[in-house]
Amino acid sequence: MRAGPRGRAARAAMAGGERRVPGGPERVALKKEIGLVSACAIIIGNIIGSGIFISPKGVLEHAGSVGLALIIWVLGGGVAALGSLCYAELGVTIPKSGGDYSYVTEIFGGLAGFLLLWSAVLIMYPTSLAVIALTFSNYVLQPVFPNCIPPYNASRILSMVCLLLLTWVNSSSVRWATRIQDIFTAGKLLALTLIIIVGFIQIFKGNYKELTPSNAFNFWMTPSVGHLALAFLQGSFAFSGWNFLNYVTEELVDPRRNLPRAIFISIPLVTFVYTFTNIAYFTAMSPQELLSSNAVAVTFGEKLLGYFSWVMPVSVALSTFGGINGYLFTSSRLCFSGAREGHLPSLLAMIHVKHCTPIPALLVCCLATLIIMLVGDTYTLINYVSFINYLCYGVTIIGLIVLRWKKPKIFRPIKVNLLIPITYLAFWAFLLIFSLYSEPIVCGVGLIIILTGVPVFFLGVYWRNKPKCVNRLIESMTCWGQKLCFVVYPQCGSAEEEASSAHSWQPVSGTAVRK
Length: 515
Fold this sequence. Notes:
Blueprint: E1 2-3, H1 5-16, H2 36-47, H3 51-54, H4 57-63, H5 66-93, H6 100-108, H7 110-141, H8 152-172, H9 174-204, H10 213-216, H11 225-238, H12 255-284, H13 287-292, H14 296-304, H15 311-340, E2 351-352, H16 359-375, H17 378-406, H18 419-438, H19 440-451, H20 453-462, H21 468-485, E3 487-488, H22 495-500, E4 503-504, E5 506-508, E6 511-513
Antiparallel strand pairs: 1-4, 2-3, 5-6
InterPro entries: AA/rel_permease1, AminoAcid_Transporter
Pfam families: AA_permease_2 (PF13520)
Main location: membrane
């Protein structure tokens, strides 16, 4: 049976008992409120988090010299650019929100898409959000506890308050959420610009000893292939987030123009900023000083900014606040897309009748992050997240090549040269192989986390004839969720979007599920 999004939403509405709200619109839809500036802010704001301010020492530690570390930062940006070009083609060929998940589901089928969704919703994004929120609270509390680490409980409470506040903002208005992203992205770019300007002043004063070729390539250790792979991993992970705009494609104004434009503007800008920020660091610190610092930007500020050294911890706090907002905004759209495909409870595919925001999906993301903060060893989990994240990138770009083979005549507004995904995948395979060799336990646990989704898929999604009591329970919870959150199923996109994203669907227990 062939059905576009409008038919699926209608069937899901009948199954879930869509409610018409007095005084509200008859049908509601996600609003297209993300223009080019906000699109750039989403990419830049999600890439530039706390990492560039705190610990670029990971690249330097494994590279063994200043010069090679700077080359790796540039190459990391180049690899992100190759990946983003591939995602630009996928984003305009399959113009659906959900990013990697939507593309993998479309190309490889329901199980592969569900495993990606499962790992992302279960651990990837909640853990990333928890780490960013804890970094935010630690830097906000640093002036209050200048001579010691902020208390555990104080840090956790402030992180939770920040998360709840931004969840409320994202639930109330897409416009508010994007404006916050615009403002805080501008703030973090200004902070990095300050570092770069101070670095150039140092260079004009002659303080560039560590950047001269004889010193820059003076290796204190000879890096092995394994060290180079780890250095590239550190640099690549600093660029993670370059694909986040693809999660909100349906809320972009004119996505076929603005998606690639935003990518072409943002990735080179971030690469420039990262490289020159690291150059600035080396005008104030020796490699040994940088390696011994736990907060490089703060050390930089203390050495060069004097009375204004407080600017650096404030900048980190602002950067992480914007990062939390960006992660919430995009990860909630992943839950929304997964529910719309039938891989998550249908309640998560509903939006507020007035604000047109996916409140149930936002609440699930918030709750999962709060649980990780309370019960998880967050900084250990982030190691597994990094491996899963990088694995997902490669699988998605393999999907681009598979889609070229399976559907060669499909309309592609952007069509990249095949050398671009092949080059990216060669680099990806190199890093993945040496990651498995260097960190077998971390990679093994990451694979186990992904594979735990297999039985969940067959029990929750593939199993059609569930007992009536289970279906009644699900319908009852959906109905109560609609009442509490004041949400309905959204109206779907244009006829053109329907035609470009139509699938084969099978009704399962009254809803539509991607097999």
